Every structure is written in structure tokens, then in C-alpha cells.
Amino acid sequence: MRVMERTFREQLFFLVLCLSVLKGDSRYIENNEISKDELYSFFNSELKREIPEELMYRRPLRCLDMVAVEGQFTFTAEHPQLSCAAFLMAEPTEVITVDYDSVDIDCRAGDFITVFDGWVMKGEKFPSSQDHPLPLYERYVDYCDSGSLRRSVRSSQNVAMVFFRIHSAGSSFTLTVRKHINPFPCNVISQSPEGSYTMVIPQQHRNCSFSIIYPVAIDISEFSLGHYNDFPKRSMPGCAESGDFVQLLGGNGIDTSKLLPITDLCISFTGPTHMKIGCDNTVVRMVSSGKFVNRVSFSYRLLDSQELQTIKLNNVEDFCFNT
């Protein structure tokens, strides 16, 4: 099976606008190809429509799919499908549950259905292992390993994935996807190239990130760390030593631990601070010691082609264009 020749930049854009061609961990998914028409069909009006609560939205699941609504999704193999993945996405303030309603696959023949707590792209994972509360092996839940003992899997953030491999025509399974309110969201992939968000960590020792998979202009309007509330606005090179700080990261992957730091902030201020970042992925990441209530508010919008060209030509730190 030939490897797709799309650049990583194109893949990232297609992922949120519709669906990109993706490659995950070799145990779970291989290279796949899909036509451009099929890509755009994933986010058509029928898929995004509002459905009354008393009615369950139902449709077939594709081998490569994006699911952004609640409902029941059934996959039936017409022929062997050895490398499939469905990307699940909710609002930033929601988490996702995946329920196995009915499963007719042959685990002994090598079939599997695996829910991953997060997203995988080209071997990179979101959230990164540094930021996720669970060890990596616990983020993979394989139906063939757990069976009837675990009929429901819940994500830790607003994205999740279902990997599956089916060897025999006629084998099938049905999943129900539901969304639930998350009072303190941590680790978010934005559905949109523009918007605003406030990240709050309420005295918890954890790292949280907000990932925008677009080149954007970002404005940080408010930034408050409990132990520095009375200090003026300032960026410091030694922020990591404080234990509580905010990072602005950029790069062309989804693993925040592999992105490059643009700036660190560890002194509270009321903004705005404006910055244009021409990377495929722009991340606001907050590191919290758990001793204080920390918060950061920001807004963002997509850079137009002229702004991107200016950044590419004039910005000295143009690492996003060189990687």
C-alpha cells in the first residue's frame, strides 16, 4: 500500500475541516487513502444537524471517519478492512463515552476494536504522555481484551479515537457515542480556527493544553497565577522553576512535548498580548503545581494567506516553515 504524499501541513488542515489521511501506531492503524469528495462529505450538513434528545441519530460508520455528533454508528465489513479509524470530537467543555452495543467480530482471527483516549497522527499522540493523567498503555482499551467486562469507555478530554480491523466480510459492530459536560476541561483540540477560551486549573497538580490546529493570531487577554497576582506583566526565561506558568508552543505535529516553545509566561497580567504564529499547531499550555487556582483567557483567529506569507518572509523564528 503506497504512502500518501500529502504534506503534514495539509493533513492537519484536512483533519479539522473534514478528515485527513492519517497514520497512527502500527499496531492499530496503517496508511489509508480516501478521495477528496469523501473527505468533504464527513462534515456535511446532515452530519452536523441538531437531533432532538428523544431521537437517536443513526448512520453507518466508514473505515475512515470523523464523528462530531452523538448517535449510534454501525460498521459492516463488505470486504476485509485492515486499517480503519474513526476520530471522535466534542465541544471543548465535553468528554466522550463510547458504548459497545453489539459486536460480531472474530478476535481469534486478528479482528479488534480499540478505543484510544485521545488522538493519534503519524505516530504522535494528543494529549502527550506528559500531559495525560493515565499511562499510555491504559489509554488503549481493546474490546477483544476486555470484552463484556468493559462495555463503555470514557475519554479524558474532548477527543477520542476508535481503531478497528476486520478480516471477514459480514462482520460488524455498533457503537453509541455520547457527550458529557466536563466542569474543568483539560487538554482540548479546537473544532474551529477562531474563537475564545478560558482555561482554569483549580488547585490541581496537572498540565493542560489547548491545541489549535491552524496558523493563528492569538491574543492573551488575561493571565492569573495565584502566587504572582500582584506582579506586573512580564515574561521570564526561568518560568519552569516557578512551578506554575503558561507556555505558548508552536510546531507541525500534535504532540505538545515535541513542539517548540515560543514564549513562557509566569507573571500575572491583564492583557492583551498579541502574537501571530504561522505553525500548523499553536498550543496554549498551562503547567500547575496544584497550590493555586490558575487561569488564562485568550482569543484566536485564522491567519490569512498574506499574513502567512509575511511571517514566512520576515520572521526570524520561522521554525514552523523549516520543519
TrEMBL record:
Location, primary (coarse class): secreted
Source species, domain of life: Eukaryota
Disulfide bonds: 63-84, 107-144, 186-208, 239-266, 279-320
Localization, UniProt: Secreted
GO terms under biological process: hormone-mediated signaling pathway; negative regulation of corticotropin secretion
Coiled-coil residue spans: none
GO cellular component: extracellular space
Domain Corticotropin-releasing factor binding protein C-terminal: residue ranges: 188-309
Pfam family, one: CRF-BP_C
Domain Corticotropin-releasing factor binding protein N-terminal, first and last residues per copy: 56-180
Record's keyword annotation contains Secreted: yes
Signal peptide: 1-26
Classification via SUPFAM superfamilies: Spermadhesin, CUB domain
Keywords of this entry: Disulfide bond, Glycoprotein, Secreted, Signal
GO molecular function, one term: corticotropin-releasing hormone binding
Function, as annotated: Binds CRF and inactivates it. May prevent inappropriate pituitary-adrenal stimulation in pregnancy.
Family of the protein in this entry: Belongs to the CRF-binding protein family.
Designated name of the protein: Corticotropin-releasing factor-binding protein
Naturally occurring in which organism (per UniProt): Seriola dumerili
